[in-house]
Write a structure and sequence with these properties.
Blueprint: H1 29-46, H2 60-66, H3 71-83, H4 85-90, H5 95-147, H6 154-167
Length: 218
């Protein structure tokens, strides 16, 4: 079941054939619907409780830093100011304005989440419709390309030329697989060989030769 629009956008009146004014472009239903959304968003935006224009302009980095402060800490600081006259004298936090800010955040945080969900939903609707049309258009292009082999069919050849021109480089492409670079050859590191020890005099034996026995004829 299609959603029902409670306040549909106005339909432009038909052109008066007797009028001498130049004809205008036809307004589509989706253009009317988008214009209706714009008018509603403008009305909502105008009703936002914006901060005082006299407040100091904050940089994006400054804002990101202080948005990390927990809300419970902000509420505790308001309680402390309300209870201690010393803090009320320095006027760093206005308790009334502080509680008003916390009430604003509590009430509008769900709305911010809803707006983010609407943005995601809108993206999905537009992308899905475009992808569906693109799939059919590419299939049509493939058929026309095959039909264009018959060079005697001039309308098909003209349609193929137009589609090929308009497709350009925006069509899907097969991602080219790039082979990883071959590893660089490694040069073997020579193992150092210790130099031979220098040659010295032959060692002299300290063991005395055995004495010849008496009567030995050698």
């Amino acid at each position: 079941m299609s959603p029902v629009i409670l306040t549909p956008p106005p339909v432009p009146p038909p052109a008066d054939p007797s009028s001498e004014a130049p004809p205008t472009l036809t307004v589509t239903y989706y253009q009317q619907l988008a214009a209706h959304f714009f008018s509603v968003l403008d009305e909502i935006t105008a009703a936002l409780p914006r901060p005082d224009s006299t407040q100091q302009v904050r940089t994006p980095g400054f804002i990101r830093t202080y948005l990390n402060i927990p809300l419970v800490f902000l509420g505790s600081s308001i309680d402390a100011v309300e209870q201690l006259p010393e803090l009320q004298a320095v006027k760093k936090v206005d308790p009334l304005e502080g509680r008003d800010t916390l009430q604003l955040i509590e009430a509008f945080r769900p709305l911010r989440n809803r707006v983010a969900a609407f943005e995601l939903d809108l993206d999905n609707v537009l992308d899905a419709r475009q992808v569906t049309l693109a799939v059919g258009a590419l299939d049509t292009y493939d058929l026309v390309k095959s039909f264009a082999r018959d060079r005697t069919n001039a309308p098909v050849a003209a349609a193929y030329a137009t589609l090929k021109r308009d497709l350009g480089r925006s069509g899907p492409r097969t991602k080219k697989v790039v082979a990883p670079p071959a590893p660089a050859p490694t040069t073997p590191v020579p193992i150092p060989v210790p130099a031979p020890a220098p040659a010295g005099p032959s060692p002299v034996s300290t063991t005395a030769a055995p004495a010849k026995p008496e009567g030995w004829q050698g």
